[in-house]
Amino acid sequence: MQDSRSTIRRRDFNTLAAGALTALPPLMAQVSSPPNPPLDIAEWSYSWIGVEHATLARGTMCNGMQIYVEHWFPAEVRHPYPVILIHGGHQAC
Prior knowledge:
The protein is 24% helix and 27% strand.
């Protein structure tokens, strides 16, 4: 036989959950404001590096060893070093 003081009934749980959900929106309004403004981009550009074309009987083909690169320059530089993101990994042929 279980001790009735340590168990919670379904009705009591639903009451507690409804009270918690009622208190949640004011707390979320305080947390959801961003601390810093979004990044202001002063200049954006892109390029392809390592593109080599091969002329074949059916047309011109690329060698597949190229990389697409984007450059984002912020309007205000706040840190001394840039952030470099590299997608994927090295694939040896």
